């Protein structure tokens, strides 16, 4: 998919339209797909046992924090298989000698792996036989730590101790439903998930399993740390929604019995994938019409546009039961919260990198002194600032404007920092900053109306918040540079382009082709294992 983005100067309006590329793939008989992006292209049969978990957003549940929130650390072991055995034994003992009498709770058991070096994505690959919900998240910066001070690189999870999903828009009370299972005393108990770009838009069939939002606290989780790793289990229960402690521990034991203790280390290259067909929605002709319509709007409003690109990226995968996988490699931070401290970012004004040092500096100077780019950047930065000021104390912008250089591109950048008045204001931050001006527009309602009128498909979670809630910390990215991987060997690919006065629809289409080609190149395995892909 591609995104058409418009920023109207006088009315401070910013709009985004999207193109969808539907790709059908043919795989060889070998099942050795070797990166997060090709992890789930094989067809998975229905998971009839996936109902064995509780929906924490069910009606009738208590809104108070659960009665028990605890993390137990077991003795370190040498290997992943030993860690799995240790967890199984601990849970069996816990079942025979019940420790928790509260009517609701969540308990995490964790064991460090000291000798075997395993990456989270390899562990997740090794669980491909499991027909369970799964997730993967790798932060752009490794600023979370375990109890031993080791930074958390990435997590992979299968099964859900508790999930949160509803068809209605994500609300304050849904946030409360998640928060009641989290605590500052157990910072690595986290709910990973995503929220739809526009919850008011009609759900298309491919996005139905995700609802308007989908979050999960994994049952079994692998934590890749700098200098080590951990294997963990989590069980959650709440009698008010008919999911007892016995239900939770039985479901966990069932999942653990299916988890593979063997880690399959894949070679650098996987068998080649043949792209059978590629279909664009809208077609190139319809795209030209949409762009020309946008250009007419720009002309009437004396408009300008900001495009946002970056490469320093978050990687994610989210797959509910019986659903396609939503995967991505997005550079754009929505917000990061550590206790009461909040940061967000503004990016705008894109230029290519120069082929020489001298040319690169010349391009940098051109971007820094461009009146047009300065206006675009200022509008994006000030929009985020105003949203933060509505919820936070004084907002500090530092740097106010600088060049962020990436391997292929460079653009204007500012970081915004502030302080929440209360952790209860976290929901207000999320609902205020989403949808971000980079993928929707401002005013939001007007931009979303244009999107709904122009686009002929469902964006789903594309452009929405993707990340996690924790007890004392939360982090969300914007779900761009992403794809929805279908069960029947296909994928819907999302990317973006920007439209300004004087834009050429044909050239913008070529830019979309270039951006989506980053995913198709990966599917053809032109890139080495785990190389991050810039597909914006």
UniProtKB/TrEMBL annotation:
It catalyses: chorismate = isochorismate. SUPFAM superfamilies: ADC synthase. One of its GO terms (molecular function) is isochorismate synthase activity. GO terms for biological process: phylloquinone biosynthetic process. Keywords: Isomerase, Magnesium. It comes from the Eukaryota. GO terms for cellular component: plastid. It holds the Pfam family Chorismate_bind. Its EC number is 5.4.4.2. This is isochorismate synthase. The gene is LOC107484800.
């Amino acid at each position: 998919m591609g995104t058409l983005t418009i920023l109207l100067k006088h009315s401070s309006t910013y709009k985004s339209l999207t193109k969808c590329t539907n790709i059908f793939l043919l795989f060889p008989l070998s099942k050795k797909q070797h990166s997060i992006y090709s992890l789930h292209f094989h067809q998975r049969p229905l998971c009839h046992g996936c109902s064995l978990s509780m929906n924490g957003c069910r009606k009738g549940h208590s809104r108070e924090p659960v009665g028990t929130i605890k993390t137990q650390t077991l003795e370190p072991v040498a290997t992943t298989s030993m860690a799995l055995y240790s967890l199984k034994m601990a849970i069996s003992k816990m079942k025979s000698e019940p420790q928790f009498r509260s009517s609701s709770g969540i308990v995490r058991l964790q064991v460090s792996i000291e000798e075997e070096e395993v990456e989270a994505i390899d562990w997740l690959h090794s669980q491909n036989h499991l027909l369970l919900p799964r997730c993967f998240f790798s932060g752009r910066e490794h600023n979370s730590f375990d109890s031993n001070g080791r930074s958390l690189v990435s997590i992979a999870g299968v099964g859900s101790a508790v999930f949160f999903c509803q068809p209605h828009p994500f609300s304050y009370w849904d946030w409360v439903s998640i928060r009641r299972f989290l605590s500052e005393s157990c910072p690595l108990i986290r709910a990973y998930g995503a929220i739809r770009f526009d919850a008011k838009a009609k759900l298309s069939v491919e996005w139905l399993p995700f609802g308007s939002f989908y979050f999960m606290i994994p049952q079994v989780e692998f934590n890749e740390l700098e200098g080590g790793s951990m294997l963990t289990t989590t069980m959650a229960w709440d009698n008010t929604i008919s999911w007892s402690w016995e239900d939770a521990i039985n479901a966990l034991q069932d999942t653990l019995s299916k988890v593979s203790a063997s880690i399959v280390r894949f070679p650098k290259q996987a068998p080649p994938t043949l792209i059978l067909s590629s279909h664009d929605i809208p077609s190139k002709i319809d795209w030209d019409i949409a762009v020309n319509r946008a250009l007419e709007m720009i002309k009437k409003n004396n408009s300008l546009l900001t495009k946002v690109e970056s490469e320093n990226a978050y990687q994610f995968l989210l797959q509910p039961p019986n659903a396609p996988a939503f995967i991505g490699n997005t550079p754009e931070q929505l917000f990061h919260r550590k206790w009461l401290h909040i940061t967000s970012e503004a990016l705008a004004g894109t230029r290519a990198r120069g082929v020489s040092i001298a040319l690169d500096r010349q391009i940098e100077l051109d971007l820094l002194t461009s009146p047009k780019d300065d206006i675009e950047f200022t509008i994006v930065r000030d929009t985020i600032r105003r949203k933060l000021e509505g919820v936070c104390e004084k907002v500090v912008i530092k740097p106010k404007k600088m060049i962020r250089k990436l391997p292929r591109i460079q653009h204007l950048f500012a970081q915004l920092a502030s302080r929440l008045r209360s952790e209860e204001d976290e929901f207000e931050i999320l609902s205020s900053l989403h949808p971000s001006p980079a993928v929707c527009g401002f005013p939001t309602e007007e931009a979303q109306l244009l999107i709904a009128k122009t686009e002929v498909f469902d964006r789903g979670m594309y452009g929405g918040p993707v990340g996690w809630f924790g007890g004392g910390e939360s982090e969300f990215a914007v779900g761009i540079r992403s794809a929805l991987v279908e069960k029947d060997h296909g994928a819907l690919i999302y990317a973006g382009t920007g439209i300004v006065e004087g834009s050429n629809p044909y050239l913008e289409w070529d830019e979309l082709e270039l951006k989506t080609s980053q995913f198709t190149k990966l599917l053809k395995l032109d890139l080495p294992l785990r190389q991050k892909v810039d597909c914006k």
